[in-house]
Amino acid sequence: MFGFSASTHVALLAISALVTAVLGSHAWRRREEPGARPFALMMVAATVWSGCYAVALTRTGDPRLFWEQAQWFGIATLPVFFFLFAMEYTGRDQFVTRRARLALAVVPAVTILLVWTNSAHHLIWRAQELEQVGGITLAEQWFGAWYWVNLAFSYGLVGAGSVALLRLVVASEYLYTDQAALLAVGVVSPLLANGASVLGLVPLEVAGIDLTPYAFTVTGISFGNALFRYRLFELLPATRELGRQAALAGLEDGLLILDTDRQIIYMNPAAGELLDMDRGDALGEPIDRFVDMDAIDFDATDRLAELRREARTYEVETAPVTDRRDRVVGHTVLLYDVTERKRRERELRAQRDRLKRLERINTVIRDVNKALIDATTVEEAERAVAETLVDSGAYEAAWLNTSVSDGEAVGMTAAAEGVRSAPVTELPEALDPSRRQEDARTSGVVRPDGGDWATVAVVHGRTVYGALALRTGREQGFTERELAVLDELGETVGHALNTIERARLSVADTHVELDFESTDDDGLLLSLAEETGTEWTLEGLVPAAEGALVLYLTTGAAVTVPSIEYRPGVTEVRRLDSDDGTTVEVTATEGSLAHPLIEAGANVRTATADGKRCRFVAEVAPDTDVRTIVERVGVAFSGTELLAKREVDPTTNAALSGDLDMTDRQQEALEAAYRAGYFEWPRESSAEEVAESLDISSATLHGHLRKAEGRLVETFFGG
User: Fold this and answer.
1) Predicted structure pTM score
2) How far apart are CA 75 and CA 53, in angstroms?
3) Going from the N-terminus, what domains does the chain have, and what CATH number goes with each?
4) Mean pLDDT value of segment 498-518
5) Of the ranges 105-114, 278-287, 682-691, which is most confident?
């Protein structure tokens, strides 16, 4: 190497410095990546070492010694930066704390200080002799005590960093072999060159030359390949290692690692919280101190075992930890928090049970409807309802009591041998259906001793006929959806009772007429009479959809009809043409004295109001509870009293009797058309207007009218 000219030596060292400088600059631009910052500083140190040595070779005397000392800024710090790079790059920077970094800086700082003050103590060089050979100045040196301390320190750091890189290859299952191999070549090359130079293990022709800066060219080439070809700072092992550590530490499930003696050697934070134990205190403790060992099967790897602690449920999964010889050296224990999943499973099971129960109840309701269709008397209907509900098995007991029944409440309870009648005294007093209120329109649930109960109002329109009481032994009792279905059942039973009452009235040999007088101006007829100063009469009424009534009100004078469409319950008002007075067609769901009577199953025969009072006559079946009807009318219109009650023969009007085989809807359509002046000429109302008042289509109205007219014509001419 002495045969090289001085310019050749400088060129080789300049190339080495340039390569490391370029690598350092590139790494510095990515200094936020793990390992990039110490890598860049390591390359700067190598550049200082090579550059200062190149200048030193071309100088003599004191300048030669100055640049010899200057290169130690790179020599003393490069091993530290390499060690820091290796730790960060492999994801082990948790071992290099702030305090550790300060400790690592002590030896380089002392070394640099001693280098520049060597003449006072000779701890770095005991002596130096300069010799110029072939145009370059060589320095023969005899090293002092601190030099060897620094050398040992530097080699120790380089060795530790190299071990970390080699362990990376194995720990990553050889994923980073290429990167680690190139880094190893880049480190080993200057290390071997330095060792050979320091120990004098070089040929005589290169004696006196420090080969380390020249070897940095190999370092640059190796590191350059790792950096650009194998993406040194893109495919980061630190990310993998730190990610694995973060995954273990941040794992929401508990993780325990046990040795062969079932002692805890690792516990993640989630496991610490689960066991309510400080992780440091738990290390070395037996697992059975914290966990029921019956919940852990170390021979199985499934999640069949469950562990319960306080209000949480955990599934336990174990796996053996083996070494390279497949020897079991411990176990991992994963504790999965499945509390929410178990809760959802319970909710799904409960929902499935509710749906099955609701489906069963719907089936029961259909059976009740069939039984109501077949019933011809109130007593038959009440008994059919109670028996069907209990016989289905959906309820343990059912009691039904209504105001339209002359007897006691019908009670049924389930027994081992079937369904039997139960004395009404078995019904708790708090659930006595006879203790009803007029506004009891919703189901309620109470819980006396002996099971869950529900009371259901039996209603039709605004009329409460009574109540149905049901008992169940189910643990969950009555659900909201079930109560909603039972509410509909109460309306169905009420409608059936109303239908039976009206049918009984139509076939009775005698009727009971009730004369009422009302001074309550909330009544529609009396209100009209007061506001117009004329007498008004209920000419006729026809039931419409959803409990509404179509009322035909007339007066003998031509008057201006007040704005009654804003009264409560009035949905539509239509004035009809009349030659001898004023007629209005009013559709209302409430507000007239006829409403409570119709809902109670009575027929309103006449009604007249003169401005001071309203007199009306209703017709009911002979066995009807008159007191209940009077109470209902009194609740709706407080200024109403019963004047007379008398038994009469039913009026035989062929057009209104059952002899014509005319359906209720046909009769209602015929009467509505007649009252609205549909048969007058010119017509006072069109078919569309009549159909609208009944809330049906005009085609349906025409169908009803043709059939009804056909019955009338057949009766007239056939008779």
Assistant:
1) 0.41
2) 11
3) 6-240 (1.20.1070.10), 251-337 (3.30.450.20), 346-506 (3.30.450.40), 508-651 (no CATH), 653-719 (1.10.10)
4) 73
5) 105-114
